[in-house]
Design brief:
With about 475 residues, the protein is α+β, with helices and mostly antiparallel strands. Helix 4 packs across helix 5, helix 6 crosses helix 7 and helix 6 packs across helix 8.
Length: about 475
């Protein structure tokens, strides 16, 4: 599935802190159209397990494939050629089965042309990638393409994540009519290509301080705008073969979603937005971060609803609105407390005694450093880290103190139904991207640049290749 054109800015420039915590997060930002089958199968194996409840160590000799996908012809025929490589009807049928299982869709015969087109497009890209990597291997005289043992390790990890042995995992695929080579060839191309792109270009990219400051300023300007919690699928006009074909594909995917296909699985396999590897999860975004057409559609939607196809300049979006918030950014406050337990009906003399003890302790506390160690030494006082919370979620007495206290200042004793409390504010920050640290923003921007490089590289390989698609169809 194609991506937004590299010359066009991403539809949203936003922080995704859960991805930016590590290089693994950055990696997911530049996976190409086929997304990570390792991730897809690792997360959607419930679909396979359901079909193989009580999975056994061996698969039956013949599987029961999806009736909508035709059986392979008696004679393998060539459907396409990519330079010197051929793609057969068997290859396409196998890839179609893999797409159906991993996306959790239930295709009808009317859906097969689009499913076939997508399978063929993915196979063409994989052949181009492996051809390019072989050329680089020959030029550099070094190994670049993932070895069988690397693929073995990936399959073993996928099986482990699915609480299966490798044998059970592969047997469950076989029961869906999917050959082992279909999975292994996709993994080999995927693992080799993304590792090479990251290794070749990742170390060369430099993000300037002006870019980071501009990112922070942009997010700060959006902080008080309405927010939407979205999941998304993006279909590119160019790769789909035009706006009509992209709209047809979007319409079919929406029909599958209404029939119960998991949005996350559909997004992983069919979306080319940078959120594809994350199951289409875009997180919380502001109206200003959305394309105007998407923003207009989302404004009319209710939480829990799925959009119709939303055409934009270069592609079509499918949006699932999970939730929405009015304008205004959340204030996240990190707190520690020292408390003395007292019931709501405790006599006044006990309350007074506890208050005097906490007042004396308050004079010994200076900010968050050593707060727990000092407070914990006082008999009858419980000290602990309350972690980070949204100010609006705190009890009124605690919220008033937490929002008004400067960072590092200890509150006066606060009465609750559970006791008396001293609070200290260790940090305050907005929930928007300006709360991300320098390295997280840098990783986000590097990930976006790697994604753009990857798209341009594949586009150039396609333009320079000799690609012939024959009239015969995979299912014929």
């Amino acid at each position: 599935m194609p991506a937004p054109k590299p010359t066009r800015p991403p539809p949203r420039q936003r922080a995704r802190s859960e991805k930016d915590e590590s290089k693994a997060g950055m990696r997911s930002l530049f996976l190409n159209a086929r997304t990570s089958v390792r991730t897809v199968l690792g997360l959607s194996l419930a679909l396979l397990i359901a079909a193989t409840a009580g999975a056994q160590d061996t698969a039956p000799a013949s599987a029961a494939p999806d009736p909508a996908i035709p059986a392979s012809a008696l004679t393998e025929s060539v459907v396409a050629s990519v330079n010197d490589d051929v793609i057969t009807n068997y290859d396409i049928l196998q890839r179609m089965r893999l797409l159906v299982v991993t996306a959790g869709i239930q295709p009808t015969r009317n859906d097969l042309p689009e499913l076939q087109r997508y399978a063929l497009s993915g196979l063409i890209d994989e052949h181009l990638e492996l051809q390019e990597l072989r050329r680089e291997e020959k030029e550099q005289k070094s190994n670049i393409i993932a070895t069988d043992s690397v693929v073995d390790d990936v399959v073993a990890d996928m099986a482990k994540d699915s609480h299966m042995t490798t044998e059970q995992f592969m047997a469950s695929l076989a029961q869906q009519g999917i050959g082992a080579d279909t999975l292994r060839s996709q993994l080999k191309a995927q693992e080799s290509w993304q590792d090479w792109i990251r290794g070749r270009y990742g170390s060369r990219l430099r993000i300037g301080e002006d870019q980071i400051k501009a990112f922070q300023a942009r997010m700060a300007a959006e902080a008080n705008k309405p927010k939407y919690q979205l999941s998304e699928v993006y279909i590119d006009f160019d790769k789909a073969g035009g706006q009509t074909q992209a709209n047809d594909e979007a319409t079919q995917l929406i029909a599958q979603l209404h029939q119960g296909a998991p949005f996350q699985n559909v997004a992983r396999q069919f979306s080319n937005a940078s959120t594809a590897a994350n199951g289409g999860d875009a997180g919380w975004v502001t109206a200003g971060e959305l394309d105007p057409e998407v923003r207009a559609a989302v404004d009319q939607m209710r939480p829990g609803s799925l959009s119709a196809p939303i055409p934009t300049k270069d592609g079509i979006w499918i949006v699932y609105l999970r939730d929405r918030q009015a304008g205004g950014s959340a204030v996240l406050i990190n707190l520690k407390q020292a408390a003395i337990a007292l019931g709501a009906d405790a006599p006044q003399d006990q309350v007074d005694a506890a208050k005097a003890k906490l007042e004396a302790l308050r004079g010994q506390l200076h900010g968050c450093e050593n707060f727990e160690a000092v407070a914990g030494k006082v008999d009858g006082v419980l000290a602990g880290d309350l972690g980070e919370a949204d100010a609006k979620d705190l009890a009124p007495a605690f919220r008033d103190a937490a929002t008004s206290l400067p960072v590092g200042q200890v509150s006066e004793p606060i009465r609750s139904d559970q006791g008396l409390h001293l609070l200290v504010v260790c940090s305050k920050r907005s929930s928007t991207a300006q709360g991300l640290n320098h390295d997280q923003i840098e990783n986000q921007l590097i990930g976006e640049q790697l994604q753009m490089i990857n798209k341009r590289y594949l586009r150039d390989l396609r333009n320079s290749a000799s690609i012939e698609v024959r009239e015969s169809q995979a299912g014929s």
